[in-house]
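Shipment paperwork, digital attachment
Item: protein structure file
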Amino acid sequence: MTRFLACLLAFALPAAAQDKGSEEAVKKQKATAAENLAKIKIPKPTLIETDHLLVYADLPAEKLKPIADAAQKARERAFKDLKFTDKDRLPDGKLTLYVLADRTKEYTPFVKVIEQRTGKLDADEMQTTSLKGYPYAAVTTSPATKSTDADLKAEAMAAVVTLLIDQKAGGPVPTWIHVGMGKAIAYRTEGNTKLLEAHKAKTRPLFTRAKVGLFKAADVWGEKRFTEIDTLTVSLAEYLLYGADGETMGKFLGGFRETEERRNPGINTALEAAGWKLEELDAAWKKWAMSGK
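Attachment content:
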């Protein structure tokens, strides 16, 4: 998944004020999107505009609208769960979402022409996001499968959450955070109750006195791989979102942002920014998870 370093924006609003975007900003975004799509030979795309998203595709409106509605719900849930405040400066306008169902004819040209990437795409790449200029995400599906509405909807929701996470952090964060927080938020988005229940059923047996000492928070971002790692990744992300206070979580995410004073940031700079020692994070996470929250 390709990421662009966040640039400093000349126009930004407090998060609470960044509701539906100013008419001027949205107008410019629509012009940019139309230009981008024309470059990849989609001259007459369908646009579904929601409160916070501009969703484009070369699909009939009746197929695109459910995808746009699901992405909007994900955006609302992510905004809430990531605890945006007036201290979080967001660019004016809406998020642009390109739903590129045809991987070969639409998505590949997008990353080649618009993002000017070279080389062969990874087979598991299904989305790309950027905070540069007007934030956007472009999604597609696996080359091994035929695109389905459900696949595109899931990928669109995940991409919107990824953008919100990076906006909260002020720049790209590690993949495990995107994956963990993305799933944690998706499970709590309207209509996904069964997914949340299934996740909790997998999590409970791991956080018992007999097993909780068999793993550590560092396993989530380390090289060690084992069967339960995906469940633990989501669980740690849940603690950051719902167990830690919002200010500390924001500092942790911001600790991955590269600045003049902070070169090559990583988990150590994130922990330092949040005021955590690794063992403190590990203990707080396990205590919270064992409480059954």
